[in-house]
Task: structure prediction
Amino acid sequence: MTDQTLTTGRSLSEFTAQLASAQPAPGGGGAAALAGALAASLAAMAANVTAANPRYADRHDALATLAASCDAQRTTLLALIDADAAGFLPLQRAYAIPKDDPTRAARLADAAHTACLAPLAMLEHCEQVALLLPAVLLSGCASADSGIMDTANLNATAAGGDSSLPVVTWKMGSVWGAGNVHFTVDQRFAELVSQLTDGRFIITNYSEGELCSASQLFDFVSQGTVECGGDWGGYWSGKDTAFELLSTIMDDFTALDYYTWIYEAGGLDCYKEMYGQYNMNYFPLVTNPSESGIRSVKPITSIADMQKMKIRLGGVMAGKAAQKLGINITTVAASELYESLQRGVIDGGEFSGPKADDSLKLQEVAKYWCAPAWYQSAGVNGVMVNMDAWNKLPEEYQTAFETAARLCCGEQLSRYIYNDMTVTNKMIDEEGITVTHLNDEDWQKIRETCLQTYAEECEINPNFKMVYDSMQAYRETANNYRDWTGDYGFGFNRTEG
Result:
């Protein structure tokens, strides 16, 4: 670059003077990278000082590794200051291209893409620094004679208290976008893994599209391109319809039923069996309550109403049942639901529970809500793990991974239910949503059709039958209890008398 003085090798005084000047770069990106580099430097200092103290001799190697990681992040972030400036200036020049120039749009798009690369890299490396900071802190605190935090004790216990355990870094892709409530589950899980391993096992989360598309994630994890990925099994129905049963069901199988079946009645074995066929391990992260239902631009009170509409439904089995019912189902990506409803491409569609629907703001473009969701009475999201990467983990980290998943699953169940409650009230009381219901006759017809669809799939797919039989065995075990508790045990609306 000839028209811009870069920052590498310049003093802090010179850089800040540049930052304060009228020139467009360095700017906010460079300042953010500098802040990240300073944080990495402080973390490295803490690690080096602690490692030099004889009291922490048992942690010297681990601290040295952490210090080296901090130094690497510092170096990278400093380099990104110049990369950010270099990436922005072509964009500035592109904006100066005359508006009647036929090449302007393409050149602007290319320049914008280039300008985004350095800031995105900064975010990733600043996140890595943020993950290294507690690792350094806890590596020192866990050996201190005083002021030991309860979490540090928990972490040391979970990691076996063994300072010789390596620092492991994994990438975790996701089928969920960054603003999606389901992606926060992936992030919470990674946080728990770090806490339970004294900050030595670091999982960095990447939202849908950052590492690969949602449709690619299964193969990326299976092949080991990415160590693990947050998923909803229904996305893999095209590979095997059994995956759909592992993520959702068209029946009165509740989130609590899923949770109990998974951990007490053999359900987890079904996940291990199915994902194991593709070189993966699997751990549920949340059992979801029922989906919202169909959000539509016109009211739905019958099957006949749905037959007159174009409706987005997720899942192969739901599509098969809908076809039997004469309902016109179309495929629309979740990220495109809002626009598709707004433009009239579809008349109605489903995504997830009220909180997740709210994250997409579907209530803004679809004022009618047909509930409950006949195609999904409950669901499961989880994390799929490449088996080769899993087998390389120390046993202590495998235990921490399993523990984090179980903790996350229980924690998120209550969170989801409460969030769905509060968002439902907001949609009805403040946002003018009208809730409709199917009549009893049509509801019974739908239920019979769903059960018929499952029976037919059991005849042609042994894997589907294996999972469905396991779920039905649990149901048989639970039937007497459910009959005994009735509505009182499983809940009823007290406003109905």
The domain at 165-486 is CATH 3.40.190.170 (D-Maltodextrin-Binding Protein; domain 2).
